[in-house]
Amino acid sequence: MGQRGNIMSFRPDIKVLDATLRDGGLVNSFQFSDEFVKDLYAANVKAGVDYMEFGYKADREMFDPDRFGKWKFCNDDDIYAIVGDNPTDMKIAVMADVGRTNYKRDIPEKANSPVDMYRIATYINTMPAAIEMVEYCHKQGYETTVNIMAISSAKERDIDTALYMLGESCVDGIYIVDSYGSIYPEEMREIADKYMELGEQYHKYIGVHSHNNQQLAFANTIEAISRGVSYADATVNSMGRGAGNCPLELLLGFLRNPKYNINSILQFIERHMLPLRATGVKWGYDIPYMLTGQLNRHPRSAIEYTAQGRTDYLDFYQSLMDRE
Q1: Is 322 a residue whose pLDDT tops 90?
Q2: Fewer Cβ atoms within 10 Å of its own Cβ: the N or the C terminal residue of the chain?
Q3: What is the pLDDT of residues 86-111, one digit of tens each?
Q4: Whole-Å CA distances, 93 to 52, 113, 116, 231, 298
Q5: Does residue 42 form part of some domain?
Q6: Stretch 237-243: mean pLDDT, rounded?
Q7: Cα 59 → chain centroid
């Protein structure tokens, strides 16, 4: 594979997906006000964003609705209350986790839903179940992606097998997911080339979803784009689990497509993100997330550490090293 254009290139195939409600919801248990969600929807439409992900389609029998906001479950009626018939060019996406979604009960036919795309999140070892969900959603009339999580800790031969299985499936797109924020741009280049080769062989588009543990989410996103990846996830003000994600305002400002405009996103940050941070909701780069990223670890230990208000960074680092 080779470089696709340069920093000044216009790539009409690129699509931007805002994952603020879904990945950001992991920070505050999806407790977003209706005003927040309506304003985010309006801001994304004005900014030219191509897809807005509203959250998860989680199984209410597995997750207590009293502990989470509505976007943990993405009831169609709740989405309709925000978007109406969605008379815009922006599409609506929802994520469904393998093993955490009762998809045969909770995902209706596309004709009866405001959702356009289901993104199936899976680990390598649950790929058969992911493909079963893809086939179901495809038959229901939805666009589909499979987001392969934690690839930085997977064996290359297992990734190759998973990609082949997805190539043979009916999925529309396949996502590179840097779950631990541990991938460097040089590695992203090689990974993107591998995914793109498969995508071109089987006519699948490739997407990228990065985490910012080492402040590389934006760098990795644009590196993947430079190799031909066409779908890019981002979140407003980088709001997402732990260290957060590629900032939407950075990505839109970088892309050389006149359809994208950051004005409404900047206004949304002023009106909603700054007050949200002021209430004590925390996300973004910090030393504990850097350490788990450097060591290629799941950030759950850093999230717990940060929630305790600890700053004994060396002790935390040594505890991580002791688990090697």
Answers
A1: no
A2: C
A3: 999 999 999 999 999 999 999 999 99
A4: 6, 11, 6, 13, 25
A5: yes
A6: 97
A7: 19
153 DSSP assignment: G
- Same domain, residue pair 302 and 156: no
245 touches 222 (CB < 8 A): no
Local structure of residue 270 (DSSP, 8 states): I
Residue 302 shares a structural domain with residue 268: no
Query: Does 309 fall in a domain?
Result: yes
Containing structural domain, residue 110: 15-278
What is the pLDDT confidence band of residue 203, given thresholds at 50, 70 and 90?
very high
Q: How far apart, in whole angstroms, are the C-alpha atoms of residue 130 and residue 262?
A: 35
Give Cβ neighbours of residue 113 (< 8 Å, ≥ 6 apart). Answer: 76, 107
Q: In which residue are the tokens 């900032």 written?
A: 247
What integer best gives the mean pLDDT of the chain? 96
Same domain flag for 171 and 260? yes
The CA distance from 11 to 4, in Å, is 9
Residue 154 contacts residue 187 (beta carbons within 8 Å): no
- Reference 229, options 32, 9, 11, 8; nearest CA is 11
